[in-house]
Amino acid sequence: MDTLYNTAKEFGKTHLLPEAKDVDIKGRFPKEGIQALRDAGYFGLVIPTKYGGQGKGVLAHAEVCSGLAESCASASLCYMMSNVGAYCLSLYASEELKQEILPKVASGEIILGLAYSETGSGTHFYKPDMTEEPHDGYSILNGKKSFVTTAREADYYLTITKSVVDGTINLWLVPADSNGLTFDEAGWNGVGLRGNVSEQMYLKDTKVDHFYKIDGNGDGDRLIFVVGLASACAGISMAIADEAVRYTTSRKYTSGKSLAEIETVETHLGDLYSRAYAARETLFSAARSVDNNDEDAFKNCIAARVTSTKAAVENGHEGMRVCGGIGYVRNHLPMERLMRDSLAGQVMAPGIDVLRIWLGRLLADLDYLAIMK
Prior knowledge:
- This is Acyl-CoA dehydrogenase protein.
- The protein is α+β, with helices and mostly antiparallel strands.
- It has eleven helices and eight strands.
- The model has no long low-confidence stretch (mean pLDDT 94).
């Protein structure tokens, strides 16, 4: 098994799992786990070595994110978003901006958040309603972003805007302390993944220096983003399979026989692991194809995201059945938290139904973005 995956999995057990229950109950940001990831240098994973990072690729991103997600998917998701932001900056930002930001991310001094999704365009990030009004040396940004993971906790937010002058799409790295940047007072109260604090972010007449502007829509980061979401689902799926084994082997009848010795339960355990294993290996294969610049890399990433999302949902349902009534009790066994977490992948943008359309159109050699027009 991949060393990075195993290392991240053990790191998660030590540093993320102990707070996972409290993070879920309180719906709070996994501050302790994220700090541990900062201190251990994980935030430099995909940052080039010239900026103090480890220079790893998308496969490493998948291995680490999925390994961490097996302990706390909320923490893994917040970490993943910062990785995507750093990867995007590495590809598209000016050299000056790279030198200013990337070494600080790599050292754990700062973390990044993504502010892509909008109510008006939903899954289609690259058709934003948020506007930029250019001036001499700066622009004024106005609009609202939905489901901004790591809300209030990141130091910078990577966001997408549309120019009011010519309609061009651009990326911006918006400092968290910018005037006019606020978050919805209602906060975040998700069914699952309750620690990723995904809130609505508002920019009202927010002045951002052109130093933070990144020309182009940055769609090259779409692969690592899709892989990251697939990693969370794959990790949840495997965590459910592991928890089912743990519970059924420890649950004893009066006779001394364990629940795992019931033949029907054994078939459930086999199915849970089979789905989780298939999701993980499909994920790693897709991520490897990105690093290898394979022609079918984007198709593979979408397939991995669809596969892992389905595996997580199906495992969540079956895992609950294996644990029975005690598994349904809130905050008792981890299974009910894992089941709630498993549902999120269906609706996290790009949603699974849109991804299936994209994949079908790509396979038929059609313009997958045509559904946005």
